[in-house]
Amino acid sequence: MADGNLANLAQARDEVYATPLEKLNPAQPALFQANTMWPIFERLRAEDPVHYTEEHEFGPYWSITKYNDIMAIDTNHQVFSSEGGITIAEQTQGDGPLPMFIAMDPPRHDVQRKTVSPAVSPTSLQVMEPLIRERAAMILDNLPIGEEFDWVDKVSKELTGMTLATLFGMPQEDRRQLIYWSDVVTAAPGQGLVDTIEQKMAIFVEYHAYFTKLWNERVNAPPTGDLISMLAHGEATRNMEPREYFGNVVLLTVGGNDTTRNTMASRSRRATRSSCGTSRATATKRSSTGRTTTSSTASGPAPTFPLASASTAAWATAWPSCSSRSSGKRSSSASR
To answer: How far from 122 is each of 128, 129, 137, CA to CA, in Å?
Structure first.
């Protein structure tokens, strides 16, 4: 870790331990952007592992910071529910949050997840492995040599986009559009990617229309191995309402893009730090081609869906920005 980051972390620790325990608020995006969130979790685990934050822009919320407590909550579906949303932001506008299986309790969660899980099973990934390796080698071989470049853009986004487009059965030329839509989902208006909520809503209409077209193509064709075909032909998902289908598309898009891209970027940062003491992408490495590069089924028809209606635009507000996302469940007393 660079000296500046160490100093920032030390300052953050001082501030955390100087703050009254009841005032600690871990849901601050700036802490994660600066990689200074560790002290607040350190103190909460030691002093208040079931912590209540009373004042927050999205209202009061609980923070659970110990593994066994998290597991106890996550596996107790009778007391703690995922229904109604999985973020600390309450969705009160329009029809509420988009339904998606991550925000459902068993058995609905289990059967919908089971429908798409074969696409990323160990067997399926083993089949895809040669293609992924080939693409990774091509990306590395095409990196500029002897100059700095944006690893996230040229490597993490590119390989993630290629793989997601394959999983969705999309044309490869649309892979960057898919990454863009995923980024818009979690973007807060006025923070760089979109300027206004109206702009975000317009992008969601385009996003929805694209995947509605894919659904209508797949539902009228024999089943294939891509995610949209699995949803269109799966017994538990083929009769979903359009809004629920789109919610699951958003979930799969953001989940696939966000986690994979960030993991690759994080691993490359570790590699370049350990090899040259910096997080810049200027370390020499050899690709799999040997070239040295510089890089840091159910019967019966399922329904087709209409294109975006006037209410579709309101769905843009149903997935909160990254500033309000969390991974906790809601207690049954609060959500039922």
So the answer is: 10, 10, 21
Whether residue 104 is contained in a domain is answered as no
Residue 115 near residue 240, CB atoms below 8 Å:
no
CA distance linking residue 1 with residue 209, whole number of Å: 45
Tokens of 10: 């030390």
Kindly state whether residue 99 falls inside one of the protein's structural domains: no
Task: Say if residue 265 is in the same domain as residue 127.
Answer: yes
Please choose, from the candidates 194, 235, 191, 239, the residue with its C-alpha nearest in 3D space to the C-alpha of residue 215: 239
CA torsion sign for 113, 114, 118, 122 is: positive
- Alpha-carbon distance of 101 to 164, in angstroms, equals 19
- What is the number of alpha carbons within 13 Å of residue 114 lying toward its C-beta? 10
pLDDT in tens, 175-227: 999 999 999 998 888 888 999 999 999 999 999 999 999 999 999 899 998 99
**Domain membership of residue 28 as a residue range:** 3-91+328-335
So what's the pLDDT on residue 298?
A: 40
Q: Does residue 250 have a pLDDT over 70? A: yes
In a domain, 97, yes or no: no
Do 241 and 118 sit in the same domain of this protein?
yes
Distance CA 177, CA 218 (A): 20
User: Sign of the CA dihedral 53, 59, 64, 65?
Assistant: negative
20 and 154 assigned to the same domain: no
